[in-house]
Amino acid sequence: MDLLIARIIDGLNNGVIYAFLALALVCVYRSTKHLNLAQGEMAMFSAFIAFAFTQAGVPVVFAILLAVAAGAIGGGLIERVLVRPLGNDADYSILLVGIGVFLALNAGAGLIWGGEPLAFPNVLPSGPDDYFSVFGGRLRYQQLLMMVLLGLVLASVFALFKYTKLGLAMRTATSNPESAKLLGIRVNRINALGWIMAGAVGGLLGPLVAPSTTLTTFMMFSYLIYASAAATLGGFDSPGGAVVAGLIIGVLESLVGGYVSFIGSDLKLAVAFVLLLAVLMVKPSGLFGSKRVERV
Amino acid sequence: MALPITVQEGSVQHRGLNLGRVVLVVAVILALPYIVAPYRLDQITGALILAIAAVGLNLLSGFGGQISLGHSAFFGFGAYTTGILVTSHGWSPPLAFMMGMLVCFIVGVLVGLPALRLKGMYLALVTLAVGVIFPSLVRRFESLTGGSAGLFGINFKAPDIAYFAGRTGQVVWLYYVAVVALLLACLAVWNIMRGRTGRAIVALRDNESAAIVMGVDRTVVRTVLFGISASIAGLAGGLFAVDTGILTPDSFSLLFTIYLLVAMVLGGRATYWGPIIGGFAIYFLPLWTGEITEGPAAGVVFGVLIIVMVFTLRDGVIGGLKSLGARFLVVEPCRPASSVELGEDRLMGDAEVLGPDEEPATLGEMPGSTLSATDRV
Question: Which of residues 269-308 of B touch A (CB under 8 A)?
Fold first, then answer.
């Protein structure tokens, strides 16, 4: 029983990370309909920026806030400089730009901060005794913080979309850019906002993950793969779906990897994707995605 | 002489130009082993192998319009099938290549089945799944694949001819094997794309619903397309196995797929020469950036270079070359016969005459589309 709880908590911890990153992917997808391959590296770079601030003597919490701001600015810049000029109908070009940003940020972080893993401080105390006991399992403070923050971010994204005029404009711009323009919505700015939100979410995630993974240039790579799976499973345009799917993938992977000896740790990733395949077979637009109806 | 020069399509000059191009390509292929150093020729072989894989990807993603992030897996299936058959079962490499292609075809069709229901991002993610799972499969089935330690000792001995003697001869031999494989792959793609099937593929890409209404069998076309594209990637994988002689799961990571995508798009999507040029670019650019800078800086330069090329060459290198070439030489297409007496067959026949660099016309711009609807019925 204890082992089961431990595995579930373990899965949730990973799931939160997938969910966070998937949320960022969804923000971008909702705005410009692209998979941002560089999302993980943007989060990684933000973590390094936070690290630089802590080195300069800024308290961790403020360093993270600065990283969030940096992430937001970075996201906005990428949209304005690299995505918008390519225009609509440039799927492959933007995929390539994502790859370019990915490689440049990855190598850039290595260039500035070196290839060695760095230690990043926790926000909350993280001694051996700093945990909540949940049915005998250990939920560490930092991990609890991430879950709470994930909930807050999701709630505010949801509230933004549902209850504000800006959110309505964002939904309009997603569902029909042409009509939105005719209604006087500045679709370009709205799209930029999606990238800014994604950058900020990544900027929050990076420094929070860094203590457990240690700060390296490749810390986000496998998370990006899981996050894309989570975003797809959830339905790519649904923030709530992305979060739920992220948590499901995390827990399921941990349980299957733990209990089915054939799978072991090697095929954990495969579990996530087989689940993805199975769901897409039944629901081609994910668990919570909106169906697209096409006119001939 | 006033530029650009205009040449009538199908005229003697035009045919001469086309013949000249073929002669030039053949001459370069034959001359390379003599004019470059063996280590450079070895690199060219590596680039050729990448080019073959990119040609395979281009068939699916460029002409077919289906993004695949899983071609590293097909490449890997080909490589490991060849590797295992050659080392453990003593097969001769050409037979092993074919077996690898067959395995890839089957896997490709299997992956293509779920792809029927999915589009865009969702399809990309399913193929990504295949690509991501492959290295873990290799690690899991260690007894068969050698796992993380790698599979060693795969080689393709040159036949006993003086020309291919010694270490240099072996390099030249593999170079020619890669050249022949690339030619075969291009020929296959060219043959598929210039006929009825090719038009069906392009129609499905441009407007799926309309294509189905017109009688294109989506299930067959899409799955077979997936299979053929995968088996071309598998052929490249088999060559990779005999060329490097050692296979590790890390060679077939997501990064490889990404490189292939870059190769295809940078070279020129849905063109015949694009993926080849892209394959060379993606092989030599990192080498080159690695030479002029050191360590991580090379990665930054490479990344920035990709972005710059996306912005300067919107239609890939081929698109850039074409618009450059159009300043000097314009090939005036011969007018499609406009009289209706010739009938539908004649018109469609004209549509098939395409230069090696041209994409088959999309539905909207078929020659003869100036005819009114009643004329066509």
Answer: 269, 295-300, 302-307
Give SS3 for B150: coil
CA distance B307 to B305: 5
Averaged pLDDT, B310-331: 85
Residue A62 has pLDDT above 90, yes or no: yes
Extract the tokens encoding B101.
């292609």
The tokens for A18 are 């997938």
Helix axes B274-292, B254-267, angle to 10 degrees: 110
Phi, then psi, of B78 in degrees rounded to 5: -60, -45
Contact at CB, B299 and A294, closer than 8 angstroms: no
Q: What local confidence, expressed as pLDDT, does residue B339 receive?
A: 56
The answer, for B129 touching chain A at a CB cutoff of 8 Å, is: yes
On chain B, the residues whose CB falls within 8 A of the CB of A110 are 295-296, 299
Residue A87 backbone class (left: φ over 0; alpha: ψ -120 to 50; beta: rest): left
In this prediction, residue A296 carries a pLDDT of 52
How near does any CA of chain A get to the CA of B132, in Å? 8
Assess whether B207 and B140 both reside in one domain.
yes
Confidence of residue B1 (pLDDT cuts 50, 70, 90): low
The answer, for B353 touching chain A at a CB cutoff of 8 Å, is no
- B233 and B284 within one domain: yes
* CA B112 from centre of chain: 18
Encoded tokens for B250: 């890390």
Res. B348: pLDDT tops 70: no
At residue B3, the 3 state secondary structure works out as coil
Query: Which of A273, A275, A285 to mutate: most B Cβ within 10 Å?
Result: A273
**Residue type for position B167:** R
Centroid of chain to Cα A127: 27
Predicted pLDDT at A136: 74
Please give the helix or strand (H or E) that residue B53 lies within, else none. Answer: helix B38-57
pLDDT digits (tens, 9 = 90+) for A168-211: 998 888 888 889 999 999 988 998 999 999 999 999 999 999 98
Q: Is pLDDT above 90 for A40?
A: yes
Instruction: Give the separation between CA B283 and CA B285, rounded to whole angstroms.
Output: 6
Token pair for A241: 């779906």
Regarding whether B288 and B256 lie in a shared domain, the answer is yes
Predicted structure pTM score: 0.83
Identity of the residue numbered B107: V
Distance between CA atoms of A126 and A144, rounded to whole angstroms? 12
Co-location of B337 and B290 in the same domain: no
- B118 interfaces chain A, CB cutoff of 8 Å: yes
Average pLDDT score over chain A: 87
pLDDT, tens only, A98-116: 989 998 999 899 889 887 8
Count of domains forming chain B:
2
Residue B184: CATH number of its domain: 1.10.3470
Could you tell me the pLDDT band of residue B367, with boundaries at 50, 70 and 90?
very low
Percent of chain B's residues with pLDDT above 90: 34
**Do the strands B5-8 and A137-140 form a parallel or antiparallel pair, or are they unpaired?**
unpaired
Give the number of other Cβ atoms within 10 Å of residue B124's Cβ. 21
Using DSSP's 3-state secondary structure scheme, residue B329 falls into: strand
Structural domain that includes position B251: 5-330
- B176 and B321 both lie in a single domain: yes
Closest among A54, A48, A85 to A70, alpha carbons compared: A48
Query: Given CB atoms, is A77 within the 8 Å cutoff of chain B?
Result: no
Beta bridge partners of B7: B331
